[in-house]
Amino acid sequence: MKATSVRYIPLLFTFAVTNAFGSSNTFYADFRYSLNQLDVGDRTTQGENNASRIGFKGHYGQSDSLTAFYHLQMGVNIDGGGDVLSDRFYYAGLKGNFGSIIYGRTSTAYKKTGLQMDPFYDSSAGAGFSGSNFGLSPLTNGWTDNSLVYTTRM
Question: What's the pTM?
Fold first, then answer.
């Protein structure tokens, strides 16, 4: 838990500094919990955390030429097992007429596509109530650290 908390100190500092300069910052929370009734031999009901999360995001400057932005998101374990907070993603970047460039811990391109196409992608509605069923590998369902991502403007 200490290592996770220490990792977020620079981003929280950025949040405080940019807030002082009048930029747009948002704190959000999305708690996703379901009760699932399983009927496999004997009927059981179980609770399932469906990727609950909290985060901070914001930007400084709002123009077509250049805007700085950041996003920090942490997983929240609300069903009692393991650490309360876990790493999800965190990044900062610049966007403008050229597109956007970000650096940090990001989702894979395959995962981003899956999230856009499948409304149940990061829920417990996957095969056997175990989450998304897109292969469940680090390529399809994970994060990439120290990523430098350029996206063109459409």
Answer: 0.68
